[in-house]
């Protein structure tokens, strides 16, 4: 037998090749088991396919993959009853990476990344060679289906491999890994079962782990997404959704389709019916699972943009090699096309469901804030997303869309007005709305943190500009309201500006108030007030805190101050009071809370004294 052993040299570059595979290609050591199980499952599939035209190659009654750990011998064996390999195929399939050399390997990698073809890693035997991450020696015994001879391939991965005649009772392949001392964790049956459930749970072929002499199933063996929709019940979909996301809800939407043509993949996606226990804001990456021929590859392929990260599910394709690494995925053109197709399909589903306002509301209340992020960061989909947005309004109950707002706009109105704050209920009572309500002008109430940012990027909708009512002076001159003529503030305004020159950028009168005495607004061209507040809270202030103080010229207090200014009275104290009142209305603290409290108390005491001194009617 010894004389019949053939020794073959890998070539001078094998050390560099194996170093690339073992240390650079894969980020998780346990991947080796996924690769070997995938190869075994593929071998069974190939035998099943060839048996369609050659019945002599038919599979045994119970095809399966067996994973057998042996702690005493420190070996791990992966066996299948698939198509097997003859002597030439062993040399070809398990020696290609070495015979191709580092230069050819890296050149092919670069070409595959730069073209529209899948990565060519699989053509170089890289998946098999991941075994050397955990094994100091690998032995392969294989018998080709339809042949009587078996052959053994063996290598320590250092420069050569051997080929020798062997015996195997049936067709198929045994891979024996002689484990490294630091890889003994992979001889624990429960560890092996965990890895298989993670990476190969939905391979339809049974994968059995041998424990204490008994075979135990390690995978579920049902790729639900590969079944026809007509064979799947709603309960089965819901169970899979719960299993996949470790949640307890029923999905709000289930998307199951197969793309065919130049790009082929199957997708089964779920939009949850409730917010996850872990907020989607904690991690801004999509966690859709990427499978290749039912084999789990990664959930870090970013198959959907961050603003759709609440979508869960599986995308399974035939157009990628099984052993493509997560690092290589980012440069694969095929994956980029899958991303575009999956994103378009989810958006299409949302647009269809958004037509039913009542049915759309639960989704919006759960994930609307996340969807708005796309308006801010995704120029390609910004216009589509704008149509999916929903808002509270100053003019009606419930949610409304931008399209509905535009349909209700008054004649001559050219802007979509909105107000941003921390709470929609509080915004509905804001004095900023008074002048708009008096003129029958609707204002959208935005209360998510992202609302301080995205309107700037969208800028307009259906030709109507978006306008924050706290940013600059809104011209309401086309929309008149009845009332007493406003007094002349020519004497008062300069005095207030001088008294508050360290605290505000300007003091001006406004038509946006009806009942309140004063409000604050951002300067023209400056960030919206809510954005300024958010930046201050984050410790990133937008320059000096100098807003514009706007006065209601028809308010009794302003009328009295205007008369006093004309009479030469000192308005310094009241200037500070007006500013603090405006700050409190916006939810901010007065500049000097203790001083503000004293002034309010003194003013109340004066009112009570005046009331007590008034003669009885």
From TrEMBL:
Pfam families per the UniProt record, alphabetical: HATPase_c_3, HSP90
InterPro entries assigned: HATPase_C_sf, HATPase_dom, HSP90_C, Hsp90_fam, Hsp90_N, Ribosomal_Su5_D2-typ_SF
Database matches in CDD domains: HATPase_Hsp90-like
Keyword terms: ATP-binding, Chaperone, Cytoplasm, Nucleotide-binding, Stress response
SUPFAM superfamilies: ATPase domain of HSP90 chaperone/DNA topoisomerase II/histidine kinase, HSP90 C-terminal domain, Ribosomal protein S5 domain 2-like
A: annotated span: 1-326
Principal location listed in the UniProt entry: cytoplasm
Cross-referenced HAMAP family: HSP90
Family membership noted in the UniProt record: Belongs to the heat shock protein 90 family.
Subunit details: Homodimer.
Biological role stated in the UniProt entry: Molecular chaperone. Has ATPase activity.
Protein name: Chaperone protein HtpG
Organism listed in the record: Roseococcus suduntuyensis
């Amino acid at each position: 037998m010894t004389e019949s052993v053939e020794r073959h040299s890998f070539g001078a570059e094998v050390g560099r090749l194996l170093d690339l595979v073992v240390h650079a290609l894969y980020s998780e050591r346990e991947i080796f088991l996924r690769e070997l199980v995938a190869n075994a499952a593929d071998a069974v599939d190939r035998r099943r396919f060839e048996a369609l035209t050659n019945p002599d190659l038919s599979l045994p009654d119970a095809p399966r993959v067996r994973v057998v750990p042996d702690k005493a011998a420190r070996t791990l064996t992966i066996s299948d009853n698939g198509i097997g390999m003859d002597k030439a195929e062993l040399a070809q399939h398990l020696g290609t990476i070495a015979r191709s050399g580092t230069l050819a390997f890296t050149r092919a990698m670069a070409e595959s990344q730069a073209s529209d073809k899948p990565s060519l890693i699989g053509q170089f035997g890289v998946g098999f060679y991941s075994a050397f991450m955990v094994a100091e020696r690998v032995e392969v015994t294989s018998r080709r289906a339809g042949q009587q001879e078996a052959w053994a391939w063996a290598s320590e991965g250092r420069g050569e491999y051997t080929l020798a005649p062997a015996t195997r009772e049936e067709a198929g392949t045994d891979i024996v890994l002689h484990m490294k001392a630091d890889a003994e964790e992979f001889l624990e049956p429960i560890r092996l079962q965990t890895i298989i459930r993670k990476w190969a749970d939905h391979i339809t072929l049974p994968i059995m782990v041998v424990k204490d002499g008994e075979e135990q199933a390690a995978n579920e063996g049902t790729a639900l997404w590969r079944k026809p929709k007509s064979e799947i019940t709603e309960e089965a979909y819901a169970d899979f959704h719960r299993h996949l996301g470790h949640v307890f809800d029923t999905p709000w939407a289930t998307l199951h389709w197969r793309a065919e043509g130049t790009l082929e993949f199957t997708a089964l996606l779920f939009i949850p019916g409730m917010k996850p226990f872990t907020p989607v804001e904690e991690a801004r990456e999509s966690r859709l699972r990427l499978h290749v021929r039912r084999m789990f590859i990664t959930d870090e392929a970013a198959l959907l943009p961050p603003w759709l990260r609440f979508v869960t599910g599986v995308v399974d394709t035939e157009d990628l090699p099984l052993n493509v690494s997560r690092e290589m995925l980012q440069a694969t053109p095929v994956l980029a096309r899958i991303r575009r197709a999956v994103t378009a399909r989810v958006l299409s589903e949302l647009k269809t469901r958004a037509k039913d306002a009542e049915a759309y509301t639960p989704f919006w209340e759960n994930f609307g804030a996340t969807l708005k992020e796309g308006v801010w960061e995704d120029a390609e989909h910004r216009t589509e997303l704008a149509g999916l947005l929903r808002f509270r309004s100053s003019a009606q109950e419930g949610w409304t869309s931008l399209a509905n707002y535009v349909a209700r706009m008054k004649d001559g109105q050219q802007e979509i007005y909105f107000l941003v704050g921390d709470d929609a209920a509080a915004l509905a009572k804001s004095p900023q709305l008074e002048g708009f309500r008096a003129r029958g002008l609707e204002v959208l109430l935005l209360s998510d943190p992202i609302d301080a940012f995205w309107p700037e990027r969208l800028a307009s909708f259906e030709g109507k500009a978006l306008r924050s009512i706290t940013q600059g002076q809104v011209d309401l001159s086309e929309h008149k309201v009845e009332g007493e003529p406003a007094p002349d503030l020519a004497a008062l305004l300069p005095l207030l500006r001088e008294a508050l020159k360290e605290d505000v950028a300007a003091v001006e009168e406004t038509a946006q108030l009806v009942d309140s005495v004063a409000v604050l607004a951002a300067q023209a061209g400056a960030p919206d007030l809510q954005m300024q507040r958010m930046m201050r809270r984050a410790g990133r202030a937008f320059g000096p805190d100098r807003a514009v103080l706007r006065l209601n010229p028809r308010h009794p207090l302003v009328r009295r101050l205007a008369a006093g200014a004309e009479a030469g009275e000192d308005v310094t104290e009241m200037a500070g009071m007006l500013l603090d009142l405006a700050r409190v209305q916006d939810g901010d603290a007065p500049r000097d809370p203790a001083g503000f409290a004293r002034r309010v108390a003194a003013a109340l005491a004066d009112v009570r004294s005046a009331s007590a001194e008034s003669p009885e009617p």
